[in-house]
Amino acid sequence: MAERGWQTFDPSTMPGQALYQLMNSVVVPRPIAWISTVSADHVPNLAPHSYFTVLSPEPPIICFSSGGVKDTLRNLRHTGDFVVNVVPEELAREMNLTSADFPPGESEFAASGLTPTASDKVQAPRLLESPVNLECVVERELTIGNRPNYVVFGQVVAVHVAERVMRDGRVDVSEIRPVGRLAGSGYVYSREFFTMERPTYAGLKAEWESRKGAP
Ligand SMILES: Cc1cc2nc3c(=O)[nH]c(=O)nc-3n(C[C@H](O)[C@H](O)[C@H](O)COP(=O)(O)O)c2cc1C
User: Fold this and answer.
1) Does position 108 have pLDDT exceeding 80, yes or no?
2) Is 175 in contact with 131 (CB distance < 8 Å)?
3) 18, 48, 57, 86: least CB-packed within 10 angstroms?
4) pTM, whole model, 2 decimals?
5) pLDDT at 1
6) What share of the chain is helix, strand, coil (3-state, %, to 5)?
7) Cα angle 194, 86, 40; round to 5
8) Which of 45, 48, 42 is nearest to 109 (CA)?
């Protein structure tokens, strides 16, 4: 029974499109993997994927999910690799343009005026205009869900970072200003940043004790 003030959805009785919208609205904001690949006919391909995350730092493994078989999936199955490019806010429009249903023989790079450049360790090109490129080798692929969705795991074999987004030897996220995906056509800019040191239980306990002892 639903609690007052709450609406509870039962995924097992919901139509697919409504479920898709619900999940896209609540798992937010999502980072966008702007994935470049190359086809068997040597056509460079570029497409955004926001069902994307990092899973393991050592070795670095990322994953993304393709809803059905698209050019990106076809290409990486052929070459065994792909590149994840980060989307800074000044490239938001170009990123959106590359999500159109281009035919396989037509490159989103050319259509959006973006530059594919050679990667070091993989066949897929990297996107020159993006400040961060992750060269990935396909580690495994899983099929999940009814659509079905194909989840591709990639081991990151090279990381390229533009010096303009580095400060004191570290990547400065406030210089990348990555675009995040919300529901539908919604996006979010990364513009306000704040920090919080992660507490330890011992530190918290000491703080609580000292407060108890305070007059
Ligand atoms: C911001 C954004 C995020 C997207 N995320 C995904 C995703 O996670 N998985 C997916 O299959 N399609 C996603 N899409 C749709 C694909 O980009 C779109 O189907 C594209 O045409 C696929 O291109 P391709 O056939 O060249 O691979 C997304 C689109 C946008 C604009």
Assistant:
1) yes
2) yes
3) 57
4) 0.96
5) 61
6) 25, 35, 40
7) 165
8) 45
Of 34, 33, 30, 40, nearest to 109 by C-alpha is 34
85 with 180: CB under 8 angstroms? Answer: no
What is the CA(51)–ligand 1 centre distance, in A? 9
Predicted confidence at residue 53, as pLDDT, reads 98
What is the spatial distance between Cα 6 and Cα 161, in angstroms, rounded to a whole number? Answer: 44
Residue whose structure tokens are 């869900």: 145
Instruction: Please tell me the distance between residue 204's alpha carbon and the centre of ligand 1 in angstroms.
Output: 44
So what's the pLDDT on residue 134?
99
Residue ranges and CATH numbers for the domains of the chain are: 17-213 (2.30.110.10)
Contact indicator for 134, 119 with CB cutoff of 8 Å? no
DSSP-derived 3-state class of residue 116? strand
| Residue ranges lining ligand 1, Cβ < 6 Å | 32, 45, 47-51, 65-67, 70-72, 96, 99, 101, 181
106 C-alpha to ligand 1 centroid (Å): 16
Q: Which of 34, 99, 151 best tests ligand 1's pocket when mutated (most atoms within 8 Å of CB)?
A: 99
**Ligand 1 atom 19, closest CA:** 99
Specify whether the CB–CB gap between 136 and 45 falls below 8 A: no
CA distances from 170 to 32, 99, 179, 189 (A): 21, 31, 20, 21
- Say which amino acid occupies 44: P
